[in-house]
Write a structure and sequence with these properties.
By secondary structure, the protein is an all-alpha fold. The chain has one domain (about 10-440): MFS general substrate transporter like domains (Growth Hormone, Chain: A, Up-down Bundle), CATH 1.20.1250.20. The chain is about 80% helix and about 0% strand. It contains 20 helices and no strands. The two termini are about 25 Å apart. Mean pLDDT is about 80; it is low at about 1-5.
């Protein structure tokens, strides 16, 4: 048994050096996350210009924002868990193709009906990709670096959103709003052959599905050249023997996981409500408050950039300290800085500081929460657990833009609309801290 523990299962992955395999998986998933962030955010950046071209009011875009988020929810709930049966890599390839094709088609939308359909279908691909790049990165990361690598990988999402904001301003000015979707569609399609040839399947998944040893051995050698493949396989099988089989969502509530799953879902729901409310409506609200569109977009890009910094900083803290205290404090702090945005008016320096620090908490802590979700579920249901947490979160993401549109249509001021985001941020903080209490009681 001592030999098995030293040479098999998770021990090999956890003691492995950060080498070319781990770097390659993290880097490729980072690029997917970056393109995902670009495509998810793109509609918010071009909405004011489309509204001008088509003679629409800003409030009309509430259903469009939510259509993409409905797609994200469908992808997370339905397509993403299929990875626990068909493989992480397979679903990543399919989902990347889906969001690339329909993002490209969005450029040719002629009316709101077509725009809504294309955003819905793009969202399905985006929603399926996210949980699986989180699961794949987590499964190749050594325990000592797991939260850091998952958060660094997921930094691609807010970075893609930031690049999308800065690039969209130039693309719209140089060509028109259609060009933003052309770029957002072509780049994922160009990435597909790279993913096919260079992204490995999860070795844990291969063992769980009884793949031939010849398919597993080359990956084990890349993780640790001295490791025994047979011991590695047997070790993971022993670990998985007590874990749930299949990808039924009911497994998320068995064996004492019900309170963990419930609180995790509350945190995801509330924070993604805040996150998507801000990234979708902030450009429009700040423009309505009197800022030029280019500066309104810059403020939102700054929020996403703050998320990149927050994710890296919080990821390191999570690896060294209690993730529940770190994330709970970050969510609480984000509520205060959202209020700074609300009261900043059109004072650009105040808005940029408030946006950056709000992003540090809202976006950065969400990325940390993704890593947390991947760590609380066993391999057999990991993609399902992360996928459903994100799926429930996407429901909050749908609610956020819809509520924003309703409040805007009801003639609420931009300041009061932004202030509404403080409440769910505080609820997310309480949920994560409570989750920490539950995990402590169970000894996890």
């Amino acid at each position: 048994m001592a030999t098995l523990e030293a040479t098999g299962g998770s021990a090999v992955v956890d003691r492995a050096k950060f080498g070319s395999l781990q770097f390659g998986v993290t880097a490729l998933c980072f690029v997917i996350a970056m393109l995902d962030g670009f495509d998810t955010q793109s509609i918010a950046f071009v909405a004011p210009r489309i509204a001008e071209d088509w003679g629409l009011t800003p409030a009309a875009f509430g259903p469009i924002f939510s259509a993409g988020l409905v797609g994200l929810t469908i992808g997370a709930f339905v397509l993403s868990p299929a990875a626990d049966k068909f493989g992480r890599k397979t679903i990543i390839l399919i989902s990347t193709a889906i969001f690339g094709i329909f993002a490209l088609l969005t450029a040719f939308a002629a009316d709101m009906h077509q725009l809504l359909i294309y955003r819905l279908l793009t969202g399905i691909g985006l929603g399926a990709a996210m949980p699986n790049i989180i699961a794949l990165t987590s499964e190749y990361a050594p325990q000592r670096l797991r939260a850091t690598l998952v958060t660094v990988m997921f930094c691609g999402f807010p970075l893609g959103s930031t690049i999308g904001g800065l690039g969209s301003t130039w693309l719209i000015a140089t060509w028109d709003w259609h060009s933003v979707f052309v770029v957002g569609g072509v780049l994922p399609l160009l990435l597909l052959p790279v993913l096919y040839f260079f992204l490995p399947e999860s070795v844990r998944f291969l063992v769980a599905r009884d793949a031939p040893e010849a398919k597993i051995a080359p990956i084990v050698r890349r993780i640790d050249a001295a490791a025994s493949t047979q011991s590695f396989i047997q070790g993971l099988k022993d670990e998985n023997s007590s874990a749930a089989k299949g990808f039924s969502v009911f497994q998320l509530f068995r064996e004492g996981r019900a309170p963990i799953t419930g609180l995790l879902w509350v945190a995801f729901f509330m924070n993604l409500l805040v996150m998507y409310f801000l990234v979708n409506w902030l450009p429009t609200l700040l423009k309505g408050a009197g800022l030029p569109l280019s500066l309104a977009i810059l403020s939102t890009a700054t929020l996403n950039l703050g998320g990149v910094v927050g994710a890296i900083a919080l990821g390191r803290l999570i690896d060294k300290r209690s993730p529940y205290i770190v994330l709970g404090a970050a969510y609480a702090a984000s509520a205060a800085f959202i209020a700074v945005i609300a009261f900043g008016g059109i004072n650009l320096p105040v808005l940029l500081v408030g946006a950056a620090l709000s992003g540090f908490g809202v976006v950065g802590a969400q990325i940390g929460c993704n890593a947390l979700a991947a760590s609380v579920y066993p391999t057999a249901i990991r993609a399902t657990g992360v996928g459903w947490a994100l799926g429930v979160g996407r429901i909050g993401a749908i609610v956020g833009p819809l509520v924003g549109g309703m409040l805007l249509a009801a003639a609420w001021s931009p300041q009061n609309i932004i202030l509404m985001a403080v409440i769910p941020a505080l609820i997310a903080s309480v949920a994560v801290l409570a989750l920490g209490g539950v995990r402590k009681k169970t000894g996890a």
